[in-house]
TrEMBL record:
Protein species of origin: Microcebus murinus (Gray mouse lemur)
Membrane spanning stretches: 1143-1164
Protein name: MAM domain containing 4
Keyword field contains Methyltransferase: no
Cited PANTHER family: APICAL ENDOSOMAL GLYCOPROTEIN, APICAL ENDOSOMAL GLYCOPROTEIN PRECURSOR
Length: 1213
C-alpha cells in the first residue's frame, strides 16, 4: 500500500477530528468575515465553497482540499503569456511530457491543473493564484502534489502575499524526481487577507510541462467564539477558547492576540532577536540574521517566527559542520519547587546530521558538574519553526545552554525564547562561574567510544581496527568490522541502551516518541508521550539510513496499541520523497503486548524506517502506543536461501526465488484464484497479479524480480504464461539484468484477450561465464482498466522455439539475414530514416520497430534476393495460420516471396504489387508435423528508391480467414484493436462465454451458440466523458462498387439506462463515412445486421463502440463478421439499425466543403476548450485510422461534427 504524504488519509483524522474538539456553528456571519477563512461559518459550509471545501468535515482544523475533479476551487491563471495554467486530465491530453495520470485517482480520468508545453524562445512564467483567503492560524500548513520531469522547467515557486509583503514559502530549481512529488509548507500566522501563488518558469531549453493536484490547507482555521470554554482553557477576548499551553507561547492562537498581551504575559521574559540577543548575551558561534538579503542557501529560513516576515530576525548557527555552537542564558535562582519554563522555536533544515540540544548547567561553588541533557532534536524537520518547551526545577542556581551542531548543507536556527515568570535572574555570586562553551558538547549521534573516528580516517568514516569504513557501508547489513561496530545502532534494539538503536524522534506536534521504563519488568520501550510542538499531530520516529537490503528482509517487533475512537500505529519505509506503508497495528487493539512482523523486501540505499503513531491521550480509557524489541532479520542482500535458485515456479507454495521490487508504490501480489481471477496451473491455484488501480497507486509500474542466478548453460529458454486483459491495460515487459544493465527481451502492450497466453524468450550468456544475472518482469501503469498476471514460469537449457508472436519491438525475434545483413530492424523515431515506412504497424507511431530491406539498385541489383529466415517453430498439432503485415514502397519494389521450410523449402505466397501509404495483411496456411521455419525473400526490381518492410508476425490455430471476416474462435483474425490516445486509449477485447471476467459479456457466442464459443466485446462503462470511443478496424480492403458486410452484434444494457452506441464507419484517405449505427436498449440476444458498402479507393471497416450519453455499465459484442467482396447484400434482416444510403466518400466530401471550412475554424479557435473537455478523437492526422488517412467524419448524406465540438453528440448539419 502507498502512504500519500506524511500520514495515512484512511487511518488518520487530524487532531480536530477527536470528539469534543469540533464545533459547527449554526449561523453565518457577514460574508466579508466568513468567506474563505477556513472555518465553516455556515452549516452547509457554503462560505468556503470557493476555497477548497468540497464536503470535508466541518470540524476545526480539518483539511480543506481541492482535487480539481469538479472545478478549479477558485484558483485562477494570471499569466501574461501563452505559457499558462488550465484544468486538464491525462485522458484528454495527447502524447506529451505531462502526467499520465492525476494524483487523486491515479488514472487518466482524474483532473489536475497543468501548464502545457510552450515552444517560445523567450523565458516565460505561468502564475496560478488562489482566491482571496482570510486569516490563517499559526498552525496553518499548505500541502500539494506537483509533477514535472527534470528539464521541463527552470524553477517552481510558491509564494504568499499579504499586505505589502510577498513571502517565498518554497522555491526549487530541481532536480525533481519522477512522478508526483509532495510539497508541504507552513504559512505561519497571517492576519487579514492574503493570496497564495504557484508559478512555473521556463526558458528556451525547457518544455515547461508542469502538473498540480490535491492542494490542501490543514489546521488553518482560527477558533470560533464559544459561550463557555472547557475547564482549564483560556477564554479569549473574542470569546474563542485556547488550551493552557498556548498562553504566552509567542503565537497568536486566539486570533486577537489576547493570549499574548501584557495583562497575560507581562511578567514573561521574551527575546525575539529583533534588536539584539537580550539577556542571552553569551553566545559562541550564533549570530543574528534575517531572510531579506540572506545568503543563497537552499535551507536558509525564508522568514522569522516572531513576525512571520523576511525582514524579521532570528539566531542562526554559523559554525562549520561538526563544530558545536553554544548559547547561554542568564543565571537563574533555584526554581524548586516551582517550574522555570522556557518556550523556544527551533529550525533544523537541509541535513539529517544537524542537531540542537538543550542542557541544564547547575552553578555551584567550585568545579561545575557536567551539564544535564534535557532536550535533543536531530534530523531534518523541514522549513518550519517548531515549538518546544522545557520545565526546569533546580535546587541550585542554574543556566540553560542551547547547543547547535550543523550537518553538511544544513541550517540550525532559533527564535522567540520565552522565559516564564518563575525564572528569576540572580546577581552573580563571587563563587559562581560561567561554564566555558563548546568543548563538552557531544556529537549529534552520541556514538559509543568504540565508534569515535580516529585521526587516520577521513571525516565521516568509522575506524575499527585497521579499517576505515565509509559512511555508505554503515548499516548496510554486511559486517565490515570484526566486532560488527559498523552494524551497531542500525535499527535493531531492545531500547535499553542510551542510543536506542539509532532511532530519533522527528515529531512536530503534541505527541512524540520517548523512551519509557516499564513499571513491572523495569525495561525500557518506545512510547507515545505528550510533546510541545504546534504542527502535525502524529508522532514520528526514524531509524538511521539503511540498506541496501535483500528480498527476505523482515522487521520483527513487539507493540501495544489502544486508541478510541480513532488513532493508528504504522510502519513506513521512507525512500527519498516516497513513502510506503508496510505495516499497521490492526484496529484499535486492546490488552497487552503483541508481536508481529513486516516484510521490507529488497530496497536500495538509503532508506529509513519510520514508526508513525496517533492516539488521543486525553480520550477515554487507557489510550497509548508503544514499540519494543525491534529486530531486522535476513536483511543482507547477499544472504541466500534454498529457494534462491528456483526460477521455475508455479506460485502454488510461495513465490520461489521471485520477489517484488520497491522502486514505486505499485506491486505484484501473489493471490489465489477467486471470481474473475484464476490461475493457469489448475484454475484454482495461485498466481502473480498486478492490478494498476487496486490498491490506489501513483508509481509508473511494478517490478517482479528473481534472485541473482548463475547460468546453467550458455543458452537457456525461459517460458511463462501471462494474461493482459482489460479495455485499457498497460504494458508487460521482460528484461535480463546483468552487471547493472537491463536488456529488454520481450514486451506486450494492451489487451491480449481474456485467456492465458504462453510466451518464451531465449537467454544468451557469455560462454563459460559465471556472471550472475536477474530476470525482471515489469508491469507499466500506462493503462488503468484491467489486470496483468503471470504464472508457470519455467527455465530450461537450450534455445526456445520461434515465438508465436513477433512485433520486432524488443528484438529481431531470432530472424537471420543469411550473412548478407540486408534486412535491418529499424525505427523512424528520428524522422530521418533513409528508407522505410514512417510508422510501424504495431504501435502505428514513428517510435515503433519493423524489419526493412533497401531494394534500391545500389543496395541490391535487379533480380537479386535478400532473405530473412526465422528460428525453428515447434511442430504443429493442427493446421495453423501465419499472418504478417507488409509495407511496400510507392513504386513497385519487386516481389515478396514466402516459403515454409520443413525438410525442404516450399513456396506458399508471392506478392507483387504497387505500394502505398498503408500496411497490408498477408497470411499463409501452415501444416507442419516437424520443426519448420518461415523464409521471406525480397526480390529486387531495380527501382530507385524502393524497399519492403515486415511487422507483426502471428501464428494462430485454425485456417486463415477471408479478408475482413472473422468468427473470433482463435482470436481477432486480421482485425486491429489498437488503442488510440485521442479516443481515450481504450480497446475492444476478446473472450469466451465460459471464461470468468471482471467485465460483463454475453453468456454464449453466436458461432457455436455455447459457452465454449468466443467473440469480440467492449465494456462501455469504462468510457469517460469527452467523446471517447474504442475502434475495431479491419485490414485495408480494396476499392469496391458494392460489397456486403454481415455481422452479429449483442448489446446488454439495463432497462432505461442504455447509453451505448455501435457504429460502422468506412475509413479512407478521404475521410470517414458512417454507414450504420445502432442505439437504444436491446435485450440480451444476438442480432444480425448487414451493410452494403462502396468505396472508390482502398478503405478499412471500423466498428466503433461509443456513448450517446453518460456512462452506463453494459457490453457491446460482435461475432461472425463476414465481408463478401463484390456481392450485394440480400434482403435486409430485421433489426438492421439505422442505415444510410451508401454514397462514395468523394461525393460526400464535395457536398460538405463549406462545412469542412467551418469545422477547421472551430477547431483552431476552440483548442483550449477541446483540451479541457477531454480532447477530440478526430483532431489531427496523427490519430487517423491509418497513416495518411484523414479524420473528417461523414455520414452518407451529411457531415457529423465530432462530439467534443458540438454539445449534442448526434448534432448534424
Amino acid at each position: 500500500m502507498s502512504l500519500p504524504g506524511h500520514l495515512l488519509p484512511s487511518l488518520v483524522l487530524l487532531v480536530a477530528g477527536f470528539p469534543g474538539w469540533a464545533w459547527v456553528p449554526n449561523h453565518c456571519r457577514s460574508p466579508g468575515e466568513a468567506v474563505c477563512n477556513f472555518v465553516c461559518d455556515c452549516s452547509d459550509c457554503s462560505d468556503e465553497a470557493q476555497c477548497g471545501h468540497h464536503g470535508a468535515s466541518a470540524a476545526l482544523g480539518a483539511p480543506f482540499t481541492c482535487d480539481f475533479e469538479h472545478d478549479p476551487c477558485g484558483w485562477r491563471d494570471i499569466s501574461t503569456s501563452g505559457y499558462s495554467w488550465l484544468r486538464d486530465r491525462a485522458g484528454a491530453a495527447l502524447e506529451g511530457p505531462g502526467p499520465r495520470s492525476d494524483h487523486t485517482l491515479g488514472t487518466d480520468l482524474g483532473w489536475y491543473l497543468a501548464v502545457g508545453t510552450h515552444q517560445g524562445k523567450e523565458a516565460a512564467t505561468a502564475v496560478l493564484r488562489s482566491p482571496v483567503l482570510h486569516e490563517a492560524a499559526p498552525t496553518c500548513e499548505l500541502r500539494l502534489w506537483y509533477h514535472l520531469a527534470s528539464g521541463d522547467a527552470a524553477e517552481l515557486r510558491l509564494q504568499l502575499t499579504h499586505g505589502a509583503e510577498t513571502l517565498t514559502l518554497w522555491r526549487s530549481s530541481g532536480p525533481w524526481g519522477p512522478g508526483w512529488q509532495e510539497l508541504a509548507v507552513t504559512t505561519g500566522r497571517i492576519r487579514g487577507d492574503f493570496r497564495v501563488t504557484f508559478s512555473a518558469t521556463r526558458n528556451a531549453t525547457h518544455r515547461g510541462a508542469v502538473g498540480l493536484d490535491d492542494l490542501e490547507f490543514r489546521g488553518c482555521g482560527l477558533p470560533s467564539p464559544q459561550a463557555s470554554c472547557p475547564p482549564g482553557h483560556h477564554h479569549c477576548q473574542n470569546k474563542a477558547c485556547v488550551e493552557p499551553h498556548q498562553l504566552c507561547d509567542g503565537e497568536d492562537n486566539c486570533g486577537d492576540l489576547s493570549d499574548e498581551d501584557s495583562p497575560t504575559c507581562g511578567h514573561h521574559m521574551a527575546t525575539d532577536f529583533e534588536t539584539g540577543l537580550g539577556p542571552w548575551n553569551h553566545s559562541e558561534g550564533w549570530a543574528r540574521n534575517h531572510s531579506a538579503g540572506s545568503p543563497e542557501h537552499p535551507a536558509w529560513p525564508r522568514r522569522d517566527h516572531s513576525w512571520n516576515s523576511a525582514k524579521g530576525y532570528f539566531l542562526v548557527s554559523l559554525a562549520e559542520p561538526g563544530t558545536p555552537t553554544v548559547l547561554s542564558s542568564p543565571k537563574f535562582q533555584a526554581s524548586s519547587p516551582h517550574n522555570c519554563s522556557l518556550v523556544f522555536y527551533r529550525y533544523l533544515h537541509g541535513s539529517e546530521a544537524s542537531c540542537l540540544q538543550l542542557f541544564l548547567q547547575t552553578l555551584q561553588p567550585g568545579a561545575p558538574p557536567a551539564p544535564i541533557l534535557l532536550r535533543r532534536h536531530c534530523r531534518e524537520l523541514g522549513a518550519a519553526w517548531v515549538r518546544d518547551r522545557v520545565d526546569i526545577q533546580s535546587a541550585h542556581p542554574f543556566q540553560i545552554l542551547l547547543a547547535g551542531q550543523t550537518g553538511p548543507g544544513g541550517v540550525v536556527a532559533l527564535d522567540d525564547l520565552i522565559l516564564s515568570d518563575r525564572c528569576k535572574p540572580v546577581l552573580e555570586p563571587a563563587g559562581l562561574q560561567m561554564l566555558p562553551p563548546a568543548p563538552w558538547a557531544p556529537a549529534p549521534e552520541t556514538p559509543p567510544s568504540s565508534l569515535v573516528p580516529q585521526n587516520f580516517c577521513d571525516p565521516g568514516h568509522l575506524s575499527c581496527g585497521d579499517l576505515c569504513v565509509p559512511p555508505e557501508q554503515l548499516c548496510d547489513f554486511q559486517q565490515q568490522c570484526a566486532g560488527a561496530e559498523d552494524e551497531q545502532d542500525c535499527g535493531t534494539t531492545d531500547f535499553e541502551s542510551p542510543t536506542a538503536g539509532g532511532w530519533e524522534d522527528a515529531s512536530m506536534g503534541r505527541l512524540q516518541w520517548q523512551l519509557l521504563a516499564q513499571e513491572a519488568a523495569g525495561g525500557r520501550f518506545l512510547s507515545l508521550q505528550r510533546a510541545w510542538g504546534q504542527l502535525r499531530p502524529e508522532a514520528r520516529v526514524l531509524s538511521p539510513a539503511l540498506g541496501p537490503s535483500g528480498p527476505s528482509c523482515e522487521l520483527h517487533l513487539a507493540y501495544h496499541f489502544q486508541s478510541q475512537p480513532r488513532g493508528f500505529l504504522a510502519l513506513v519505509v521512507v525512500d527519498g520523497s516516497s513513502r510506503e506503508l508496510v505495516w499497521q497495528a490492526p484496529g484499535s487493539s486492546t490488552g497487552g503486548w503483541k508481536v508481529d512482523k513486516a516484510l521490507l523486501g529488497a530496497r536500495r540505499r538509503p532508506f529509513r524506517l519510520e514508526f508513525v503513531g496517533l492516539v488521543d491521550l486525553d480520550g477515554p480509557g487507557q489510550q497509548g502506543a508503544g514499540v519494543d524489541n525491534v529486530t531486522l532479520r535476513n536483511c543482507s542482500p547477499t544472504e541466500t536461501t534454498e529457494r534462491d535458485g528456483e526460477v521455475s515456479c508455479n506460485f502454488e507454495r510461495d513465490t520461489c526465488s521471485w520477489y517484488t521490487g520497491h522502486l514505486t508504490d505499485a506491486h505484484w501480489h501473489r493471490v489465489q484464484s477467486h471470481g474473475p481471477g484464476y490461475d493457469h496451473t489448475t484454475g484454482q491455484g495461485h498466481f502473480m497479479l498486478l492490478d494498476p488501480t487496486d490498491p490506489p497507486a501513483r508509481g509508473y509500474g511494478a517490478h517482479l524480480l528473481c534472485r541473482p542466478q548463475v547460468p546453467a548453460a550458455p543458452v537457456e529458454c525461459l517460458s511463462f504464461w501471462y494474461q493482459l486483459h482489460g479495455p485499457q491495460i498497460g504494458t508487460l515487459r521482460l528484461a535480463m539484468r546483468r552487471e547493472g544493465e537491463d536488456m529488454l527481451l520481450w514486451s506486450r502492450s494492451g489487451t491480449h484477450g481474456n485467456r492465458w497466453q504462453e510466451a518464451w524468450a531465449t537467454l544468451h550468456h557469455q560462454p563459460s561465464s559465471r556472471t550472475r544475472y536477474q530476470l525482471l518482469f515489469e508491469g507499466l501503469r500506462d493503462g488503468y482498466h484491467g489486470s496483468m498476471a503471470l504464472d508457470d514460469v519455467a527455465v530450461r537449457p537450450g534455445p526456445c522455439w520461434a515465438p508465436k508472436r513477433c512485433s520486432f519491438e524488443d528484438s529481431a525475434c531470432g530472424f537471420s539475414t543469411g550473412g548478407q545483413g540486408l534486412w535491418k530492424r529499424q525505427t523512424n523515431a528520428s524522422g530521418h530514416a533513409a528508407w522505410g515506412p514512417r510508422t510501424d504497424h504495431t504501435t502505428e507511431t514513428a517510435q515503433g520497430h519493423y524489419m526493412v530491406v533497401d531494394l534500391s539498385p545500389d543496395a541490391l541489383p535487379q533480380g537479386h534476393v535478400a532473405s530473412l529466415t526465422s528460428e525453428e517453430y515447434r511442430p504443429l498439432a493442427q493446421p495453423a495460420c501465419l499472418t504478417f503485415w507488409y509495407h511496400l514502397s510507392l513504386r513497385s519494389p519487386g516481389t515478396l516471396r514466402v516459403h515454409v521450410e520443413e525438410g525442404g523449402r516450399h513456396p506458399v505466397l508471392s506478392i507483387s504489387a504497387h505500394g502505398g501509404a498503408a500496411w497490408r495483411l498477408g497470411s499463409v496456411d501452415v501444416q507442419a508435423r516437424r520443426a519448420w521455419r518461415v523464409v521471406f525473400e525480397a526480390v529486387a526490381a531495380g527501382v530507385e528508391p524502393s524497399y519492403m518492410a515486415l511487422d507483426d508476425l502471428f501464428l494462430q490455430d485454425g485456417p486463415c480467414p477471408k479478408p475482413g471476416s472473422c468468427d473470433f474462435e482463435s482470436g481477432l483474425c486480421g482485425w486491429s484493436h489498437l488503442a488510440w490516445p485521442g479516443l481515450g486509449g481504450y480497446s475492444w477485447d476478446w473472450s469466451g462465454g465460459a471464461t470468468p471476467s471482471r467485465y460483463p459479456h454475453p453468456a454464449v457466442d453466436h458461432s457455436l451458440g455455447t459457452e465454449a464459443g468466443h467473440f469480440a466485446f467492449f465494456e462501455t462503462g469504462v468510457l469517460g466523458p469527452g467523446g471517447q470511443a474504442a475502434w475495431l478496424r479491419s485490414e485495408p480492403l480494396p476499392a469496391t462498387q458494392a460489397s456486403c458486410l454481415r455481422f452479429w452484434y449483442h448489446m446488454g444494457f439495463p432497462e432505461h439506462f442504455y447509453k451505448g452506441e455501435l457504429r460502422v464507419l468506412l475509413v479512407s484517405t478521404q475521410g470517414q463515412l458512417a454507414v450504420w449505427s445502432q442505439g437504444g436498449h436491446r435485450r440480451h440476444q444476438w442480432l444480425e445486421a448487414q451493410v452494403e458498402v462502396a468505396s472508390a479507393e482502398e478503405f478499412q471497416v471500423v466498428f466503433e463502440a461509443t456513448l450517446s450519453g453518460q456512462p452506463a455499465l453494459g457490453p457491446i459484442a460482435l461475432d461472425d463478421i463476414e465481408y463478401q467482396a463484390e456481392q450485394r447484400c440480400q434482403q435486409p434482416a430485421p433489426s438492421q439499425g439505422h442505415m444510410a444510403t451508401p454514397v462514395s466518400v468523394p461525393a460526400a466530401v464535395g457536398g460538405a466543403l463549406l462545412l469542412l471550412m467551418l469545422l477547421v475554424l472551430l477547431g483552431l479557435g476552440g483548442r483550449r476548450c477541446l483540451r479541457e473537455r477531454g480532447g477530440c478523437p478526430f483532431w489531427s492526422g496523427r490519430e487517423a485510422a491509418t497513416p495518411s488517412f484523414d479524420n473528417v467524419l461523414f455520414n452518407a448524406d451529411h457531415v457529423t461534427l465530432p462530439e467534443s465540438v458540438t454539445s449534442d453528440p448526434q448534432a448534424t448539419t
